[in-house]
Amino acid sequence: MLSLKSLTKADTNLFFWLYKLTQKRNCTGIIWLSKTGDGYLYFVIGLLLWAFEPEHGELFLYTALMAYALELPVYVILKKMFKRPRPCDLLSNFTAHVTPSDKFSLPSGHTAAAWLMASMVAHFYPPFALLAYSWAVLIGLSRILLGVHYPTDVIAGTLLGLTIASLSLSILG
């Protein structure tokens, strides 16, 4: 049986292994990739589909808006409930490549939002599913590589995004 202590150690070891791939390197591309998960792109995609894609665009926008309206408060509640310090705040002699947007790391909000959007895209536009899910994986990975999330934060974000997307699609989609 895996104890919490051994899980935390494995999580931290995997974090360091991944983060070392970016140490003393130019992370401009990873930072740019991570910024595509900030949320603005989702709104632009939704508006463009609503305006120019008559078959599913309107339902896509409404479903995505409802999903994000559900995801955001759950995300905030989980952050405040777990209060897990970010690697850059907890680990000594460690500096992240970016400044985190908030204090706590569990779950990864960028990852949750990316997986939520990828699920919406996959549902309404199946030919783009592989691209959308690949992008969501890269968003989660970027958060570890930049030093602001542990792998389990990203896994939790993935589960949150998938759960909220599934719930929202079952209601409106």
Characteristics:
single chain; 173 residues; mainly alpha
Structural features, described:
The protein has 173 residues and is mostly helical. The protein has one domain. Helices cover 70% and strands 0% of the residues. The protein has eight helices and no strands. The chain has helices spanning 4-19, 28-35, 40-52, 57-82, 87-90, 109-124, 129-145, 151-171. Helix 2 crosses helix 7 (129-145), helix 3 runs antiparallel to helix 4 and helix 4 packs antiparallel against helix 6. The longest helix has 26 residues, at 57-82. It is globular. The protein starts with a helix and ends with a helix. 36% of the residues are buried.
Class derived from helix and strand content: mainly alpha
Number of strands: 0
| SSE succession | HHHHHHHH
**Major β-sheet profile:** none
What is the element layout, followed by pairings?
Blueprint: H1 4-19, H2 28-35, H3 40-52, H4 57-82, H5 87-90, H6 109-124, H7 129-145, H8 151-171
Helix pairs in contact: 2-7, 3-4, 4-6, 4-8, 6-7, 6-8, 7-8
